[in-house]
Amino acid sequence: MISDLLLLEFEEEVKKTRTMLERVPMKEDFKPHAKSMPLGKLAPHVAELAGFGLTILTTPELDFSNAPRTRPAFESPQQLAKVFDEGAAKVRQALKNTSDDAWTQPWKLSFQGKPIFSGSRFLAYRQMFLNHLVHHRAQLGVYLRLNDTPLPATYGPSADDTMGF
Description:
Elements (H helix, E strand, L loop, with lengths): L1 H21 L16 H20 L2 E3 L13 H20 L9 E6 L2 E7 H26 L19
Parallel strand pairs: 1-2
Antiparallel strand pairs: 2-3
Helix pairs in contact: 1-3, 1-4, 2-3, 2-4
């Protein structure tokens, strides 16, 4: 079953993302460049992304302009991890309930009716949710490095690991 395979990958990405969120420095206004998102916006965005995965798995489309949204607060690394864990639990359950047939169904993302994405639910899940999560987690890694916060291992050891590599 497709969902069983995706669940294994999801669990690995959840562990890595949670560890990154647990290390977020409380520097709300920090950003590495004038065009970069401030840390106080990026970290809550990473924490809330699981909710987007749930939407992809349980609805046929989303128009951002019609979706009420409250970004999680930037209170502490523990609070960000908690928000992420709660969303991940819902995605985990939705993944378990997603049939193979559902992965080929169309899914659309738009803003005020203007298309952003249109494709299969599988592509939406992978590109718009999971790859999106990994992308922003990597951004968080840069923010942590620039704040002298040790980076956790992701797809191998980081320069901060003491594994002897």
